[in-house]
Protein 1
Amino acid sequence: MRIRIQHRTVTIFEEPVGALIQVLRRTPRNYDGQHVRHWRIDLDQDVQMIPAEDAFGNAVHNLSYTRPLDDLGMTIQGEVETREFHGVVRGGHERFPVGLYLRETPLTQTDSTIRKFAEGLGGKDTLETLHKLMAALHDAMEVEPKAVNLPAPTILAAARGASSDVAHVFIAVARGLGIPARFIAGYALLGPEQQSWRLTTRCWAEAFVESIGWIGFDPVEGISPSEAHIRVSMALDHLGAAPLRTTAHGTVEERLDVTVLADHADHAGFRQQQQ
Amino acid sequence: MAFDEMYAADGSVRPPYAGVAQWLAGVNPEQLERRRLEAELFYRRGGITFAVYGDNQGEERIIPFDIIPRILSSAEWARLSKGLEQRVRALNMYLADIYGKQRAVKAGIVPEDLVWRNPAYRPEMAGVEVPHGVYVHIAGIDIVRIDADDFYVLEDNARTPSGVSYMLGGREICFRLMADLYGAHKVAPVDNYPDELVTMLRSVAPRSADNPTIALLTPGQFNSAYYEHSFLADKMGVELVEGRDLFVKDACVYKRTTEGPRKVDVLYRRVDDDFIDPLAFRPDSMLGVPGLFGAYTAGNVTLANAVGTGAADDKAIYTYMPEIVKFFLSEEPILKNVPTWRCRDPKELSYVLDHLPELVVKEVHGSGGYGMLVGPQSTKAEIEDFRARLKANPETYIAQPTLALSTCPSFVASGIAPRHVDLRPFVLTGANGMKIVPGGLTRVAMREGSLVVNSSQGGGTKDTWVVDL
């Protein structure tokens, strides 16, 4: 698919913020499943965006505002071509050995509830277990718009959370079973309904299957990410992959628009990428 | 029978202690007691206290100072310092490797999961070029002796090792109160440590900084080592800052001053990794500087020590240090490791469980003498409690034989008596090589028979003299 998106956020602070530091991970990278034709981030304020790349290979922008702010507007515009690989992630640059993705983090910790949940899944091999895990979470978890950012056992017990929270549960269970897993933040297209698509921010997980490699699992939809997903950032958990880390929070108004320019990938674009 | 550093087995005085023996023969207990009280007064006046964690939160104590110095001959020191340099060089190379090319893991020197799943490993540091390639700028290597020949490493401290202010304070007391004894020896100086430290810190500044500004970042006055932070900043002539005194703008670090912002090039940070930047690590940290890690990875500020050095100094990696030294330096380790059982290995665990009453069991990530079992000095109930903990989480423990740490003459209530000691020398690594001031912090277990020298567990300190015989 050829997808054009526009993502506008305005953060309104209750009181003017004197100084503000932000770290953005909001720029997708290419891999076999997606080719970024163009992408830009515009800020309403005059501020320098210092680009960097983090250890996981994510594109990072460091921003520091020193003048007082009442609100902060940002517009992301981009055009991405995606190809259907049924969740299989290849052709990205892997910075770490797979074993790193067995690390436990505070948000993806395992405990007896997580282990019990894992044991109940069954499955004749890793891949089937992961599909059962995705299906089980899809059934069990009530998805809410706002992330609570609490450890996986708490989320599992409450049976509710945002896509990022659900991804943490998926990751905790997988790692608990000795399956390397990681966190992805990005976008998902919903629809089409009457030929029109809707865009949402979405987090999901990827797990490593020996014979295949990294495979995405989106427990919110209960499917592997398709060509209707845009993969933006990756890390061990939401803290590492967070689209935004900031020193001041406010009320966020968000508007997401999407146009699907073509149902099928422009293969010329991918050929160009592979060269 | 523990190795006595003063008396040889035949009862004769070992040469390094000839002067001390002679001096001890000429002083009476009243004179010693008077000096001990003066030393205590010195510490009290100086406000040299430290907070003890555990029972009474925030209680401040004076670490007992034993006025009788511990003596090492310059020949002994030469051997030890060579071993220390080798050890710290290997620690630095190991860190550069696990955050870089990963040769040691690929070669099977260290098991993969001990590297990638180590809680102190910081994935965020992978691929980051640290200024001048130095990770462990300041190392504190805990050394014990069990005989006249060998020095053993008990523990590597590569994060934010403390205690150097006690080394310097102890020397000042000896210089003032023990002038007679001090004057009778050619003691190698340690009081240049702050100068060496600041020289080293200057050397590792980003290449873009011509006249680097250095600051010492402290978690604040509630930290147990706050006294040391303010003491060192003062001696180095650099500013003592807390996170709130600094800010980041366009990936550079600045200090707020009355004349406006001033760029900071090197931070000697005594704040743990987890807390240095709420935008990179723990989001709830109030001690750090938002954006600091971004400035660091951009190469605009040097952090000493580097982020993620803890991945080299825990007690599980410790057991692999001899192999790490050989792998990176193609040399035999000069300093020995204390034989250690890795409880993560089922066979070794079963040995440990069978021999608990005679072993010392430590948490892999513990420090300060907390959460450890000293088998021979524990009750049955304590041993059984530890057995349960070991069985529940074997991979978080290691065990070692109960070492008969060497003893030095110490002044205690009953007079002069041998007490067990260890030694923490401080190894500085900068852009222009390594520097170790001769000596270090000798810690002494003041209770008879005790082997736990940690100040949090009632240990004291001594001045350490490296003398030309």
Note: DSSP finds 14 helices and 23 strands in chain B.
Protein 2
Amino acid sequence: MATLELRRLRKRYAGGAEVLHDIELNIDHGEMIVVVGPSGCGKSTLLRMVAGLETISSGEIVINGECVNAQEPAERDIAMVFQNYALYPHMSVFDNLAYSLKNRRTPKDEISRRVNETAQLLDIAALLDRKPRQLSGGQRQRVAMGRAVIRQPQVFLFDEPLSNLDASLRVQMRQDIRALQKRLDITSLYVTHDQTEAMTMADRLVVMNAGRIEQIGTPMTLFRKPATRFVAGFIGSPAMNFLSGNAGDLPGWLPRVPEETTEPLTGDISIGIRPEHIALTTPNAGQIDGHIELVEPLGSESLVHVRPTGHESRLVVRHVGTEQPDAGQRTGLNLQGPFHLFDHHGQRLATRPRLADTTCSMEP
Amino acid sequence: MTTFQRHRLTPWLLMAPQLVIVLVFFFWPAFTALRQSLYVQDAFGLGETFAGLANFTRVLASRSYHEALFNTAIFSLSVALGAMALALLLAVMADRVLKAGRVYRTLLIWPYAVAPAAAGVLWMFMLDPTLGVMTRALTTLGIDWNFRLDGTQAMILVIIAAIWQQMSYNFVFFLAGLQGIPASLLEASAIDGAGPWRRFWTITFPLLSPISFFLLVMNTIYAFFETFGTIDTTTSGGPGGATRTLVYKLYQDGIVGLDLGGSAAQSVLLMLMVGLLTLIQFRYVERRVQYH
């Protein structure tokens, strides 16, 4: 039912510091948009501006075609799930859920009907008489969700709702939230710093850095074709490897990447290679040899940190399989691709399609 | 654990300074008062005779004691409620101020640093029937102000002076309490559709209740005992005993009137009363307090 548009949104603090620059974002009805970025990138400020908790320096926030800049949080018909849940500590779970309905003078019997419905939906019906302090972290999270759901708002806002949960519960809750959001079909804006959470939950992902949007797209688009070096490094775990150098002076062992770009390369560039696109091989069998400096076993795979001979930076290799190489060993590296090229501003350089295959053909 | 049990003396030694202070300044005087309340002293303080509960029956039967009791009730209730309500109002406003907030806060805390007697004198000068600045303002409003003649006005004066002083103490606690309420709770409440007024009564006020309860106990004790200096410097219990509270009557009867037995009986009664009041507060008011 609702669309959300952000038009040239800016946030400047009284001291003069500008934390958001010209944010443009269009969210379709029922879409789950995840905003991800490092701490301090402005993502929470953005969310709070949509909620009406922060003033807008310039630009417009439009919900369903109507500019809501001047509206109070309560008038915007949004619901927000806070990082610390912000449950009212002196109220029972029932009263926490009923609070927004009471404020809107909903009849008593309808309040209890809707509270019970919501409690069923979130599996917290047995907890209605408890106070928040008597709940576990996961239960509090559910109550916070319930408080957002009960009003059936136009837009859901999530401010890192899972960051206070332990890892296994987080995986469970992110599936639950995703399922609930799809089922209720409510337009959502979800802020997180956790890229796994972002990848798994988003219809579309917004990567932010230093108050700017770096890229918007589906999780797989961002993974396959990161528009900037920042996105390339932020999305994907373990992070992408980067080799940088002058375009005219690249080490000879690198695959003949530069020739594959659509325009001639000049100046400093970075070449990105994901850890899963490098393979370990016997010495002298790959493009370059190196020393294994560190091995991090993860079970079904290991992360192998290799320093290529005569090179400063280490490369991380994702080595699949339970048998793991020893640190200190010499190894060959087989760089397969795809490769991601970025100019000295960090912008992606256009490359010809299927670049990876041509370089792979060098493999013995 | 065995180490603790072997050193039986050390804990007592460590506690000794505090224990000595409590013994000398609390238990000894309290015991003396209790003993004295059962005796009648002669006029020169040279001898005493055991009187049983005669001091108590005499005090409880006297009209002036009933009046003092009534005055104390009016005075304490007004001071405790007034000082708390005003402090809460100021704390809520100071909590909102962002610029120069510290200056406001410091200024609001100052009155507490003023001695009760000085606070009384300050207000007495401002409201002096002939010299007072505020008296002039009241006169232009058509109010005939003279607290030296009018008992009600005298009561109002001491209540104002006592409130003004205690307010700072309450203010510090309320402000700390307000700043301890997470901003996200009020934000959530705003999103949930509560206006500022409703936000205050449904979120802020309940969350302040532990502090309010503590302050209620402290303010009651303040109004009962610590306002002695304020009353003594301004009205001396007058006119005609209109501002004579229990603690002031106790002083007048004992120190000025030298009825040591009678005033000791009063102090025992006062002790019982405050104890009882605190008990009631804990028993009934504390139930409504939301600890979290």
Note: DSSP finds 13 helices and two strands in chain B.
